[in-house]
Design goal:
Purple Acid Phosphatase, chain A, domain 2, 6-stranded mixed sheet, 255 residues, alpha/beta, single chain
């Protein structure tokens, strides 16, 4: 029976992604694709940062950032083109995050007449790259590999210190999400014996970059997720990236 494989990519905040960790992600994905065929790539939101359009406090180092909005968008295009070139047969889903939503929020606040012209799919040219778009919001939900009961969205259903556990009990649905930049997993069984599992996937950004000075990031961690499905059944591997090293299927990846 065919093993179906998906790659879930948490927050990258391009152009402030951790270049070495991102390269490890690509190496693992290419090996999965070569061995099994990578059916699906899920960008889990905050792939782009849109720092230039943000409302967070700007601290001194960030005031000197040379990259403008044009530079940020260009960097995201380069990465999307790279994904499509490396994985021409994969379905690529872009699950919008709150950082991408900065674009719409800025336009609606500053120039609402243009709100339907400069949309995320238009700016990032999803049609050009053959990318499916899932807009940010409370109803955001995509079934991993289209048929499993593992849901994907950018934000957890409940935040806080134990976001994986509280999300699992809030909706009683298996879920993988980004947003928190923390690595967590939690599993329980409901009254009928169904297993519910939730995963906070961490991120792939560079915490030393100036845009993140405003946050306490001591508990942030880097990881990606590979989901394997047979029919509607699924299994997941959350692959930790530590000091630009990762181990998957007995192989050490370094960048």
């Amino acid at each position: 029976m065919k093993l179906r494989k998906a790659l879930n990519i948490p927050d990258c905040h391009i152009p402030w992604e951790d270049k070495k960790s991102y390269e490890i992600m690509l190496l693992i994905a290419q090996d999965v694709d070569e061995k099994y065929g990578l059916e699906e790539i899920n960008i889990m939101g905050d792939y782009a940062d849109f720092h230039a359009l943000g409302l967070h406090p700007t601290l001194p180092r960030a005031m000197n950032i040379k990259e403008g909005i044009k530079d940020e968008i260009y960097a995201v295009h380069q990465r999307l083109n790279e994904l499509r070139t490396l994985f021409p047969k994969a379905r690529i889903n872009y699950i919008e995050g709150n950082h991408e939503w900065r674009l719409l929020r800025y336009i609606v606040k500053k120039c609402p007449e243009l709100f339907d012209l400069y949309t995320l799919p238009e700016v990032l040219q999803f049609d050009k790259y053959g990318i499916n778009y899932y807009e940010y919001g409370k109803t955001q939900f995509y079934r991993c590999l289209g048929t499993t009961d593992l849901g994907l969205r950018h934000q957890p259903y409940n935040g806080g210190k134990h976001c994986a556990a509280s999300s699992a009990h809030s909706k009683a649905v298996s879920l993988a999400f980004g947003h928190t930049h923390r690595k967590q997993s939690y599993t329980f069984r409901d009254a009928l014996g169904k297993e519910i599992s939730c995963y906070s996937l961490g991120w792939l950004g560079d915490k030393s970059a100036p845009p993140f000075d405003y946050m306490d990031h001591d508990n942030w961690g880097q990881a990606i997720q590979i989901v394997t499905a047979i029919g509607n059944e699924w299994w997941e591997d959350t692959i930790d990236i530590k000091n630009h090293k990762a181990i998957y299927e007995g192989y050490l990846y370094e960048a």
